[in-house]
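## retry 2 of 3
previous attempt timed out at serialization; input unchanged, resubmitting
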Amino acid sequence: MESATNAHPPYRTFPSLSKIPGLAHGVFTRHGGVSRPPFDTLNVVFKDGDSREAVTENLRRVKAAMGLERMVSARQVHGDVVHIVDEARIARAESHSPVSVLPPGDALATDLAGVGLLIKVADCQPVFLVDPVKRIVANVHCGWRGSVVGILPKTVSVLKKRFGCRPEDLHAAIGPSLGPCCGEFVHYRRELPRELWDFQTKPDHFDFWAVSRKQLTDAGLKTHNIEIAGRCTVCETRDFFSYRGEKVTGRLATVVGWAG
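## retry succeeded, writing output
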């Protein structure tokens, strides 16, 4: 990943996605906001004890850094609901300025210009899906439960059916998240289906980056179009929020959208 220059708050970008004309995207660090510990400082979730005023200011800073007119998120529940973000859906959303919040769902997709799709994470994978041919973007919240229910292949299927996207045209980028070094699941025999047991890297540890790569390639994406940040949020709590590493903590902002 690369650091954005002259950005406040700071965020990281993917080299592969940065080559796509008109695309705005960023994985924000925990820095550059106003929240106090243990949410220091760029927490973007209105819960767990952080002040509404601080989160609102943090979201304003994220939106300004992205340079997009509007920002849309959803109430994330570790499920497999994919929201198509169109004008009608935005009009029905709850307004929590500067973000419009949709009902429960863990993937957002749109063809609207100027709309940033916001996913919030603290160990779960944020996964950007971009079709530069059809000019479609999606942002997916994929924790281990999302891997179990197949949120990534389901999102690819929705993009095919709704927008006519071809999987071979899609670019995917997997942001900082739980790495195989820290992906311990001591109860995996009852939490994970058998087909995921092949991704065990050492006793009780699993590589969910590899799981996502496999699910995406099985859905038709080309391996060379999948970029993985390779940054473990549990190991790098200096820069990223981690629920496993910190328990009470904030959530990182990840945003993707068409600038124009």
